[in-house]
Amino acid sequence: MSRAALPALPLPASQPRWFALPRWWGGLAAVAIGLAVIAAIYGPGILAPWRTGWMLEGRIGPDPVQYWLGWTYFSRAPWSWPPGLNPDWGMEVGSSIFYSDSIPLLAFAFKALRPLVEVSQYWGLWIYACGALQAFMAWRIIGLYTADPVARLAGATLFLVQPLLLNRLGGHFALGGQFLLLVGLYLCLTTAPAARRLAAWAALVGASSLIHAYLLPMVAGLWATDALARALRADRRPAWLAAEALLVPGLGLAGLWLAGFFVLGDGLGGTWGGFGRMQLDLLAPFDPSVWGRFLPDLPHGDHLEAQDSYLGLGVLLLLAAGLLAFVARPGLRPGWPLLAGLGVFLALALTHRVSIGGWVVEVVALPDSLVSMADALRASVRFFWPVAYAAMIGAIAALVHLLGGRRAGLVLLVLLAVQMLDLRPGVARLHGFFGPAPATAPLRLADPFWQKATARYERIRLAPTGMQARHWEEVAVLAATHGLPTDAVYLARLDPARVAALNVTTKARLAYGRHEAGSLYVLGDEAALAAARRGMDPARDLLLQADGLWVLAPGWYSPGWYSPGWNRPPTAVQAAAPVPEAEWDRW
Q1: Model pLDDT for residues 463-473, shown as the tens digit of each residue
Q2: Model's pTM, two decimal places?
Q3: Phi/psi at 353 (nearest 5 deg)?
Q4: Which of 93, 337, 534, 554 is within CB 3.0–4.6 Å of 515 for a Cys-Cys bond?
């Protein structure tokens, strides 16, 4: 659907007075609507950069804690090369700001500003910005087909009051940057001089690489469809296209490198799930689940995001009306490269294991090697987003083509009212998540022992550690609050070989009493506790329970055994091979 497919219609001679206002007022109104909707749903309490209680008190879940931890450690670390490295959170298994989903683009900016202003959290600002930019870009896109302000603003609000977006802003904050997809669709639907087009796509792909790993391939896919469409045109510019083919992917890769994407040797497929296990169910767009009040619940898949693709009754009616309008008055013809690109997105969302109401059919048997490569995009259901937004754009364009801007605007206004009424349960649920919260959340580990221990030790170890290992959250928040490195982590991806090696080494240290100088050990299971008891010296080491956690404090009774900053080299015994796994059962 190109702009040329629907020429701009001349405005009638007698126009309402608001047509005499400056052209930018509508964009400003769209931004204001975006901010107002976000404020109404998520509240003003998330906006202040010094308020972190709403992220850490637990109502939203563990993901915001992960984001805060990644940023807190990253902000204090010295600049490195690549600059996204974040070694103090995870230590041997640590990685980068990229894998804590802490929006590297903003993390870099606020870290650079830290000598001037210290920001405890920037996700409230991001959530408000996502709402404003989503509405603004939708307003711009609808403006390609009509100048009617009601149609543009009502349609823009439909893109904003959308579970695909609101659900992500309710916990997966970086994935709320779906305005990037609208920018990509806008570029696909418009024309511009070659230099400006190259700069726009390069900036968009580069920014996407510094925001989230799932948004990048979607934006890059839209760029590929646009580049292909321009390459097939009679007036193509081969030199510019060649430069674009080098610069745009190059900036995307550079952004990934800067953010620390390439620090992992293994583990990009994640520690659970896999490609074809978190796919789009064919009934999911029609399944209201916790969001809608009018349609009946439908069967769905059993993965974590199976119910996250509901479009809302207003948007479903929009798509139906758009289809009828297209049948009644054909004429809009989207370019086939864009259609092909959207088809690829839909195929990725559905995967080779098609799900219908939770019933899965393997349509194509893919080689294990190919599935393993695709595991990095295991939550493939998300590739439905650009398809859904493109379908909404097409439906609005078809309505305008059939009815004209003013009457289409009235239809969109009615559909918006239906959408808002339908989504009241989902919005109420978000209100519960983002209710009033203290400026800072109290530490969950409040025993006086922790205050003394964090003053005596240089780091906190969790044994065993791993992806969301037992006690990871309270231990990591305690360590970050007191400025101590820790290997208690929850990251988007972890290298399993590093985790296994660290756990074996830590078990050996505990069992043989070869404790790392400066380390406090939180024991997460019975095997670690048994090893600590076997290797400790009761005259020197303290083993106790604090806030229900078993803790080993080496050298607690021997102040001279350890002092901060002292790291003696390992002896020959300490450097020996780790204890074989087979021996652990005997302890």
Answers
A1: 999 999 999 99
A2: 0.91
A3: -110, 90
A4: 554
